[in-house]
Fold this sequence. Notes:
Chain A is mostly beta strands. Chain A has helices at 93-100, 231-234; strands at 2-4, 13-15, 19-36, 40-58, 78-82, 84-87, 111-113, 128-133, 138-148, 151-161, 164-166, 212-214, 217-230, 241-256, 273-281. Chain A contains 2 helices and 15 strands. The mean pLDDT of chain A is 91. In chain B, a hairpin with a 2-residue loop joins β11 (633-634) and β12 (637-638). The N and C termini of chain B lie far apart (79 Å). Mean pLDDT of chain B is 93; it is low at 1-22. Chain B is mainly alpha-helical. In chain B, the strands form 5 sheets. A 4-stranded mixed beta sheet of chain B has the order 5-6-8-7. Chains A and B meet through β3 of A and α3, α4, α18, β12 and α19 of B.
Amino acid sequence: MQMSIPTVSGYNTTFANVGETANKGLDLSLTTVNINTRSFQWTTTTSISWQNDHIVSLSNGKEDDINNTWFIDQPLSVIYGYKGMGLWHLEDSSTYKLYNAKGAAFSAGKVRPADINGDTAIDANFDRVIIGNTRPRWIVGMTNTFSYKSFELSIFLYGRLKYFYNTGGESETARGVQRTINYYNENNMNAEYQKPVYSEGSGDAYYPALGYKKASFIKIRNISLGYNLNSNTLKTSAISGLKIYVQVVNPGMLFSKISWMDMDVVEPTYNRGITIGLNATF
Amino acid sequence: MNTIKLIVKLFFFAGFILLYSCKKDFLKERLETDRGMDFYKTDEGIKSLAIGTYFQVFSDPFNGEWIYCATNYGVDEFSVGGDPSNGVWNGYDVGFNSIVTINNGNTALANTQWDNLYIGIGDANLIIENATASTSTSDDIKKVALGEGYFFRAYNYLRLVSQYGGVPLKTKPSTTVEQEFTRATPAEVYTQIIDDFTQAYNLLPSAGSPAKLTKYAAAHYLAKAYLYRASEINDSWNTSTKASDLAAIIPLCDEVIAQYPLTNNFANLWHYTGPDGANEQLPELILSAQFTADVSTNGRNTQHLYFTSRYDDLPQMQRDITGDRPYSRLRTSYYMYRIYDQVNDSRFWKSFRTKSRLNKASGGYYQNGDLGIIYIVNQPGDNRFSSYKLNNVVVDNGTGKTIPNAYIAYPSGVTTDGAMYIDVRYPSLSKHLDGSRIALNEQRGLRDMNLARSAETYLIAAEAKIRLASLGTGSYADALPYINAVRTRAQFVSGEDRAAYYDGGGALGASTSGQSPDKNSFMPENSYYESNNIAVTTDASASLAITDINSLPEGDEYVISTLGLTSDYDRMLALVLDERSRELCGEYKRWEDLARTKTLVPRVRAFNFQASPNIQDFHVLRPIPQTYLDGIQLEGKALSPDQKEAQQNPGY
Lengths: 282, 652
């Protein structure tokens, strides 16, 4: 596969057998009939899959490869960078002044990166870490079907759990088209994102650190409600069966760590639909 | 009666799948391509490799933003205009480090320049290796291609060493993945550069400029490399080479100057009427990056975008091809308004756009063709204007109407610099404007970019004379003939219309856009008379020649006193650096000139209002890109954080 290499060699990338990986996984599917009476049935199908991969060795030996974000004994796909510790606050001023004395420009409302080696300086060589894996550890799905007399209700849940997603952070450097964000200002000090810093320089240099998010979610992908009419009820033989149904696609999340994105389709926007249908059998 | 049935189905789909070290052969991949490296062993192959390297080394840097970031930002001539996408490269703030945080898709990363230069070096190494090994008896291979290979390599190493200091020396092509690199000393890099340029000088032909490399291009750059090595930034180790380097510069420059006479009118250099037109063939041009209208070529010059200030959002104005697409990245500094003799030196008026034609008349009073925007570049003490910005107040003498948008460098009572900095309006450097593009928002420009012209050769020689004088060889006045040659060319000649103006925006005739000239914002006129407030004259201007090193032109004395310089050497170095600005501003050289002479910090503090609070002594070198430090190994091991820090330039 393609990998990036030091450009001093004269090339950006090369194709190579880049290393060895190991992968463990488990898929489990379970269908239960919870209630089964003449007029009421409830069945549940649950599927769960779990996977855990890691890099065993790389073409350069058992050495981490930061530019390709490949790390020994770590998952194949990880985020590497400064870890966000939220924002600096007014009460931290004695702490961030220590950093400013070493050339930083922190102030209340700016992003607080984690100081991994604790030397009161944020440095690319010492303070970047593996933030987390980007492949979900768990993928879960569940379909519940209820039928009561001629009614049938089905709900499909889907989720991915235990992984990270890089939302990119909020640069807050221009008046672009953008979603509403909870940013720091004098009246909102307990904010999620840093204060906007507009200058001829750039915004907050560490803003990407606030973009790495835990991404777990469980979503209701589909709810459908149907009502079956058979020819006896219809008192006609012209139609042998008639089904009226209402289907809601993407009604919403049961929970999602990233509220403003649909992490199922990995987009901030998605389609939500209601279908009303009539299914006639002749 | 409820019966509850429970059915459990358990499927182990995959159970435990443990992929552990399959047989090695199973994973073997062989990448085979139609054209292998053997192609470069043929004459045709070497020549096509050389053509590709011309593109990589000379043309490709002008497609994008990093080149102005590395050479025109963070200096005295320019600062950030209305769009700060790459502001860190000007401001030297904390974000300027081995990782440059991406603001938006336009951000030039810390490694963009580094990578581009090393890719070019890789290509050059391939040329050199294959041309050396070639058994061809053709001069095209053994001499031309080989000379080109040495030139390309030295050219990129000179850029690297002047940006980063000592860098890894790679002089053989890689055939496998290599990760063991370490930085050489600046002395070693300069030795390589001077060897390579010398080889190029001996091998290259004398004809073919400015599109093709010649021995004169090699002479110009060899002189430049000697000058760089003899500069202040290398003072800790260059004592043994300094005197001989400086002495070697003069004959090289004289040889180039004899072949490449200055164009008699400075404006001719910028008189762009269409791709590959007359201004791109002038005898003054030693080397240019080539761009053409041929859409089958990759060449894409985007530099016309970046120096232009917004005009299209002002009253009575709209965007058009001749006004260019105003990216507003590089704001002209007040330094540029102060250093010229604005009455007698034509260069400011021929380098900057000070008037725009009204092109969106509305309201009945104005019509297209009136004066829409004027920048009055006056001098302190002028009390004619009440504010830096006057809308519908200043009267245009031509039409008798008021001008909708007027900006004034020094309003009444203001003698300090910076009145116009409140806004993001400024007279745009027009050297790169391109009205021949196919549409008003088209980024692909077609103009050549001059890389070396003999005016710079004169100034290299002048600086060498000044440095020799400081070593006790000759006198400072020896530099004056070289400086004066450039200065006197810039005088207005008898009969010249001093208000006449042209820039590349006027090349609409070569554009296939079909834009009506009535929509032009380009106006063939400058604000010379409005700014200088003198009577119209067609006399020759007073001589710009300097005769006494103790009495330098007013603009230079202003710079010298602002910087607090006193010694003859410092004054003369300031003069030559100012002259470089007057002549070469915006020609992608400035940062390196200031960094190597260690004048970057004082000049930025004095003249770049955005960077002055942040710049520190260590900023004379760029941060080594983090991607390089993260990618290399030492004895088979990735570098520890401490080892990386040891390879980084101090301060980053």
